[in-house]
């Protein structure tokens, strides 16, 4: 043993001797004090007995049978009980009038007793009974030693009784209790302290000396009883006051607790959400603070909660709590086993890194919130005009003016707009994820006013429903008290917060603010995410702690339970605490930072950001991936791909022929030329199409499939393109809206059919609620029929030659997921023809149109190509038919009961026997590499869910085109009929049907999903998680988050959520891993996510490569660090056993710090550079991800490392005992050197792919240890470590500890090689 090690043992032996010597001294002092107490008690007892006998001899007892005993005046039928309670040690003397008295002795002269001084020290009861007027007496004593003999009793007048009871079982207490009974009894005593002979002698002596005084000096009893009454009143008052004080104190405590409880409940209360009435002029009134402030807050902490919450999140894990307790124990001198900084420095480093990281993240959130809350808006007031106020100061009832391209600050009802038609478009991409514009209509009573100031002249209010999460519906009414008229309000009359005004300016009245807005109610509170690896390490830590406790207890059992054994037990716990090394947390945190840096520097996925460093390993544990559709899987760019007219179809390459047909159809010169009349032979009989010419030269430029272009093809092409250009809900927008200053224009025949058209090329943008409608209108513009104007009542088209065609909108039937079609009734203002156009899905249109033998076949062909199909049809109406329909339709709309059913019945009379025009195919362009990425993720064992707010048909089409669902694979649509499920039995029936086809991909609507999760959440999730893919359409942001939460809770596996819009923030924050895509919908999802990417295909490399590497590296790193601590604890246990179970550390604090830091830290940490498989193979074979899940860190691998550690520690320590028996004094140098070499060699055996930094780390660590041997002679004997025996024996121990493990590992790889070895 080294010199320093010998000093440790000597110091410990000396300290043990001192402790034992102090114990013996203390024990002798205690025995001496006990003897003194016993002697004192004996002397006091003798003195008390002598004085008691003396007083009894001097006491004169006078009792006469016939003479009455004077008593204080008492009322008849009253008796008194005197109770004395006492609890004193039987060996202690009793003080009587401040004089020592013998215990268990009673004197009848109560005047000599201080009633506040304990009288008796036994646990017996003494009953004294004085009987009046009966002439009888009795004495009752368990020991039969009465103080007053049986033949000497007292007779008292008035037949009154006094019952005096002395109870010595409790502290002294006198109670006087009134009794109704009249008794005659004698004075008795239990264990009076004197024998019967002694009492007889005393009484005889008393009678001999008291013959002349028969009047009985027992009158003193009268004064004693009076004193008892006075004392009793005093004690009763005192007890009453005490009880009053206690009751008052209890009442005050209860009152204060109730006040604090109510105050706490008031502060943290949740206000009841209820409908509200918002008056137009409420902004001019004083604020009542009835509604919350309009403040956006996404922070996790504030200045008061930051430190407590962060520390709680850290110490809720057993690993950190254990380190904290061990560090605190070093402040106790008797438990100190090493320098304090060896425990507090690593713990402080981990906590400091965590605090800094959380503070920076929350500071960034605060800055973003501050920017949003500081955005200024124009508030319209009656007296002060327009004012600029920040968003945070907007209140319910304020009239806010929102400019074009400005964010809506709160939920508002749309009152006025600068657009004359009273309509305005908004963008809702940050609310529901749809980039398409939504049409909003101003309320008619306010839109008809002359200006904004006229709003304040109205006596009106808005009745709004209670705040809800549903972003697709709203119920309210505008009540005008002046006219007593109510105008219904719906979703079309609202602006939700975080939407953007896309056209014109809008004035709205605020109805919901802050947390009551739809946007905030659909956002979840941000939470701190913890990786699955942390939970697993936490469980292993508990297991290791149990091992530490058991090992320490075993050492105590071997040492013996003598002295302060529990202190030694705790010292053993501290010595073996290296089994749970605190460096584990430090290395894991540093490793995660390294993983995130590798992700951000990967050139294959440029632009990827890791916004959190706590969960990179979870990327390697993903079991479910839930993704948004719009902007995530797709580019949100619809392209018109194909149109079919029955006998002919046109694709992108031949759209020019459609343009040629339309140009010929609308050519005015050919119409004027009467000599060319070829088209007259092509004109369909009874056709209302406008006349034009179709020349032979134009016909030769067209594609002809074994037949000529005849009048039917021309008619279908023209009518189909016209129907597509009219049947929609698209609004064009451009800068110079039909304004012509006379310059750069061309005049064509100023007749009724021509107008002056400006020749400037004006870029027209189209806005609609559906991107495929925009694609259709853009295609009509491309072929020559352009939409140039649209409002609520009119549509204007421009033909290929610049002529304007005016149409009036008579009725519009918008698209719904229930009807799956949309229609419009148009009146041509030139021909006054009324036409009903209808387009929709083939499933519903096939029963509406006349029979067609080609429709279903062509629909299937387009669907297999991944195109979204629409069937277009028309029906010509005369005036009488339309008027009849209009009358019935208006009646149905005015009906308040079952309105929707009545409307559908009226429309059904119109939607029949319609003429089929064409079939269109539109493609939603996917992002690059989406299909390959989804297929790779499925091969990796990850189940895919698509959650979208789009319609069912759109979702199915994207699922097939993206290969989420195979093109020829059948899907199961829950509630395929489309009827709304209402009852529990209906949901149960649908789930039973789904159970029979649970192996099919599932498609479900948001409303059906809500009912399934309400009634049968567990059953539904069990069935849905078995599906290969799930598509949820029409999902709200809250539903997306709930689905993610249900999957995580039900399966217990890691879920990843991917999105790109503000509507995906809740889903991203709820998921174990959130990935945001920076796209057209902004950066809200990207900022809220854990990882940010530029396109969806980056997920493949992020999850399969970086996720896999991060998990395997952290798992190996954790187990290696635990192995490093187990070796030291094994050495410590054997060392303590060899040295008589000494609870002293084997290595000093400096060596332990060096062992966990610069001796082994760099080689161990270099594991973060290890690669078990090359990146090329990982990307090529995604199945490797599935084979790896959860196997790198498990109880099996953990116990393997435990056995390895015990084996190596035992070999090193027992090898030192065997090989260095004569030099065992140098045990520190021997074992420490062997441990360092073993760790470096084990690392070399564990690494699978060498990196140059690993070699550098090995050399640096070994060189550092050699320098320590040379420069630290106080720890090592320089001559001893330079001997040959030391070198070859330490080398032999190292080889014996490592070589067998390498042989076993080699044999295992040959017998059962890993899967990736087969790929190599």
In short:
Helix content is 44%, strand content 16%. It is an alpha+beta fold and 1320 residues long.
What does this protein look like?
About 45% of the residues lie in helices and about 15% in strands. It has about 1300 residues and is α+β, with helices and mostly antiparallel strands. The strands form 9 sheets. A 9-stranded mixed sheet has the order 19-40-39-38-20-34-37-36-35, with helices on both faces. Strand 29 and strand 30 form a beta hairpin. The longest helix is centred in the first third of the chain and has 56 residues. Its main location: membrane. This is Phospholipid-transporting ATPase. One of its GO terms (molecular function) is ATP binding. It holds the Pfam family Cation_ATPase.
Number of helices: 41
Ends distance: 50 Å
Secondary structure class reads: alpha+beta
Strand order of the largest sheet: 19-40-39-38-20-34-37-36-35
User: Total strand count, please?
Assistant: 40
Residues in helix, %: 40-55%
Binding site for Mg(2+): 628, 630, 1060, 1064
Transmembrane segments: 245-264, 341-360, 543-562, 568-588, 1121-1141, 1147-1169, 1198-1218, 1224-1245, 1252-1273, 1285-1304
Region (Disordered): 1-79, 185-208
Biased composition (Low complexity): 185-199
């Amino acid at each position: 043993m080294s010199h320093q090690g010998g000093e440790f043992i000597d110091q410990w032996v000396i300290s043990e001797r001192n402790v034992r010597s102090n114990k013996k001294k203390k024990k002798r002092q205690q025995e001496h004090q006990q003897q003194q107490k016993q002697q004192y008690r004996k002397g006091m007892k003798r003195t008390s007995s002598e004085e008691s006998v003396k007083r009894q001899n001097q006491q004169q007892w006078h009792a006469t049978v016939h003479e009455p005993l004077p008593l204080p005046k008492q009322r008849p039928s009253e008796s008194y009980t005197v109770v004395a309670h006492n609890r004193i040690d039987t060996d202690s003397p009793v003080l009587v009038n401040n004089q020592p008295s013998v215990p268990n002795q009673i004197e009848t002269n109560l005047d000599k007793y201080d009633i506040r001084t304990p009288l008796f020290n036994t646990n017996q009861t003494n009953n004294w009974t004085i009987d009046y007027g009966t002439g009888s007496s009795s004495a009752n004593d368990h020991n039969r030693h009465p103080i007053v003999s049986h033949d000497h009793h007292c007779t008292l007048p008035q037949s009154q009784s006094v019952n005096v009871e002395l109870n010595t079982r409790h502290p002294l207490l006198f109670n006087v209790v009134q009794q109704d009974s009249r008794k005659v009894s004698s004075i008795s005593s239990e264990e009076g302290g004197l024998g019967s002979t002694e009492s007889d002698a005393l009484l005889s002596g008393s009678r001999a000396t008291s013959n002349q005084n028969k009047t009985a000096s027992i009158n003193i009893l009268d004064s004693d009883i009076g004193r008892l009454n006075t004392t009793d009143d005093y004690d009763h008052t005192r007890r009453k006051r005490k009880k009053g004080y206690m009751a008052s104190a209890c009442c005050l405590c209860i009152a204060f607790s109730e006040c604090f409880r109510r105050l706490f409940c008031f502060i943290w209360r949740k206000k009841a959400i209820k409908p509200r009435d918002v008056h137009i002029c409420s902004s001019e009134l004083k604020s009542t603070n009835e509604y919350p402030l309009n403040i956006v807050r996404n922070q996790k902490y504030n200045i008061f909660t930051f430190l407590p919450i962060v520390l709680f999140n850290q110490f809720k894990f057993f690993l950190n709590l254990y380190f904290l307790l061990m560090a605190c124990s070093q402040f106790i001198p008797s438990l100190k086993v090493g320098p304090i900084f060896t425990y507090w420095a690593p713990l402080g480093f981990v906590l400091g890194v965590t605090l800094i990281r959380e503070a920076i993240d929350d500071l960034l959130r605060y800055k973003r919130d501050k920017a949003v809350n500081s955005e200024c808006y124009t508030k319209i007031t009656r007296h002060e005009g327009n004012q600029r106020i920040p968003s945070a100061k907007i209140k319910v009832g304020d009239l806010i003016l929102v400019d074009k391209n400005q964010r809506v600050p709160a939920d508002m009802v749309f009152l006025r707009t600068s657009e004359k038609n009273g309509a305005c478009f908004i963008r809702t991409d940050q609310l529901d994820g749809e980039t398409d514009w939504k049409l909003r209509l101003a309320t008619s009573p306010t839109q008809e006013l002359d200006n904004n100031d006229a709003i304040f002249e109205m006596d009106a209010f808005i009745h709004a429903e209670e705040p809800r999460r549903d972003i697709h519906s709203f119920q309210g009414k505008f009540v005008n008290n002046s006219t007593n008229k109510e105008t219904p309000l719906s979703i079309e009359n609202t602006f939700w917060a975080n939407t953007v005004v896309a056209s014109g300016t809008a004035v709205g009245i605020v109805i919901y603010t802050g947390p009551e807005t739809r946007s905030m109610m659909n956002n979840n509170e941000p939470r701190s995410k913890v990786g699955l690896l942390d939970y697993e390490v936490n469980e292993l830590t508990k297991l290791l702690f149990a091992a530490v406790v058991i090992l320490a207890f075993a050492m105590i059992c071997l040492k013996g339970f003598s002295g302060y054994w529990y202190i030694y037990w705790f010292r053993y716990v501290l010595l073996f605490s290296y089994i749970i090394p605190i460096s584990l947390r430090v290395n894991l945190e540093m490793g995660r930072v390294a993983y995130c840096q590798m992700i951000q520097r990967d050139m294959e996925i440029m632009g990827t950001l890791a916004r959190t460093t706590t969960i990179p390993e979870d990327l390697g544990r993903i079991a479910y991936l839930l993704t948004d559709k719009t902007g995530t899987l797709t580019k949100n760019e619809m392209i018109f791909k194909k149109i079919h007219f029955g006998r002919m179809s046109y694709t992108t390459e031949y759209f020019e022929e459609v343009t040629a047909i339309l140009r010929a159809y609308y050519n005015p010169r050919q119409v004027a030329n009467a000599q060319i009349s070829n088209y007259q032979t092509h004109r369909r009989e009874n056709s209302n199409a406008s006349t034009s010419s179709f020349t032979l030269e134009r016909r030769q430029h067209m594609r002809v499939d074994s037949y000529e272009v005849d009048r039917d093809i021309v008619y279908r092409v023209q009518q189909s393109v016209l129907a597509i250009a009219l049947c929609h809900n698209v609004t064009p927008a451009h800068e110079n809206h039909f304004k012509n200053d006379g310059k750069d224009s061309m005049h064509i025949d100023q007749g009724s059919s021509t107008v002056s058209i400006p020749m400037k090329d004006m870029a027209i943008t189209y806005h609609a609620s559906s991107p495929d409608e925009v694609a259709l209108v853009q295609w009509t513009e491309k072929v020559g029929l352009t939409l140039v104007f649209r409002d609520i009542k009119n549509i204007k088209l421009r033909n290929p030659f610049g002529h304007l065609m005016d149409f009036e909108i008579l009725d519009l039937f918008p698209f719904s997921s229930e009807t799956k079609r949309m229609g419009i009734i148009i009146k041509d203002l030139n021909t006054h023809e009324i036409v009903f156009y209808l387009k929709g899905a083939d499933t519903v249109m096939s029963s509406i149109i006349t029979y067609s033998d080609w429709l279903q076949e062509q629909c299937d062909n387009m669907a297999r190509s991944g195109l979204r199909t629409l069937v277009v049809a028309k029906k010509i109406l005369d005036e009488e038919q339309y008027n009849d329909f209009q009358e019935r339709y208006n009646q149905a709309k005015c009906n308040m009961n079952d309105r929707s059913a009545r409307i559908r019945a009226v429309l059904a009379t119109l939607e029949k026997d319609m003429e089929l025009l064409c079939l269109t195919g539109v493609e939603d362009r996917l992002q690059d590499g989406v299909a390959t990425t989804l297929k790779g993720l499925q091969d990796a064992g990850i189940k895919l869910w698509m959650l979208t707010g789009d319609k069912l048909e759109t979702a199915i089409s994207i699922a097939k085109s993206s290969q989420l669902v195979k093109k020829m694979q059948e899907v199961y649509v829950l509630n395929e009929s489309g009827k709304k499920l209402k009852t529990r039995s209906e949901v149960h029936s649908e789930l039973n049907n789904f159970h029979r086809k649970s192996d099919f991909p599932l498609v479900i609507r948001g409303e059906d999903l809500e009912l399934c999760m309400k009634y049968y959440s567990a059953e539904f999730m069990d069935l849905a998680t078995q599906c290969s893919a799930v598509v949820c359409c029409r999902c709200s942001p809250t539903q997306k988050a709930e689905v993610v939460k249900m999957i995580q809770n039900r399966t217990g596996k890691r879920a990843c959520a991917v999105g790109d819009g503000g509507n995906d923030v809740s889903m991203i924050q709820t998921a174990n891993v959130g990935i945001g895509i920076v796209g057209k919908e902004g950066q809200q999802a990207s900022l809220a996510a854990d990882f940010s990417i530029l396109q969806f295909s980056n997920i493949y490399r992020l999850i399969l490569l970086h996720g896999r590497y991060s998990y395997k590296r952290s798992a190996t790193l954790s187990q290696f660090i635990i192995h490093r601590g187990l070796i030291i604890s094994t050495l410590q246990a054997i060392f303590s056993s060899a040295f008589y179970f000494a609870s002293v550390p084997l290595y000093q604090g400096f060596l332990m710090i060096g062992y966990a830091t610069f001796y082994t830290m760099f080689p161990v940490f270099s594991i973060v550079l290890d690669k078990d498989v090359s990146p090329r193979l990982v990307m090529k074979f995604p199945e490797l991800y599935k084979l790896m899940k959860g196997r790198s860190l498990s109880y099996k691998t953990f116990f393997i490392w435990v056995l390895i550690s015990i084996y190596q520690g035992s070999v090193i320590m027992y090898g030192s005992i065997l090989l260095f028996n004569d030099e065992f004094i140098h045990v520190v140098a021997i074992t420490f050197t062997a441990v360092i070499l073993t760790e470096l060699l084990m690392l070399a055996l564990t690494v699978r792919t060498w990196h140059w930094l690993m070699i550098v780390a090995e050399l640096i660590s070994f060189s550092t240890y050699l320098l320590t041997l040379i420069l630290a002679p106080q720890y090592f004997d320089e001559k001893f470590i330079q001997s040959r025996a030391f070198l070859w024996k330490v080398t032999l121990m190292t080889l014996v500890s490592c070589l067998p493990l390498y042989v076993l590992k080699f044999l295992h790889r040959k017998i059962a090689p890993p899967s990736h070895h087969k790929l190599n």
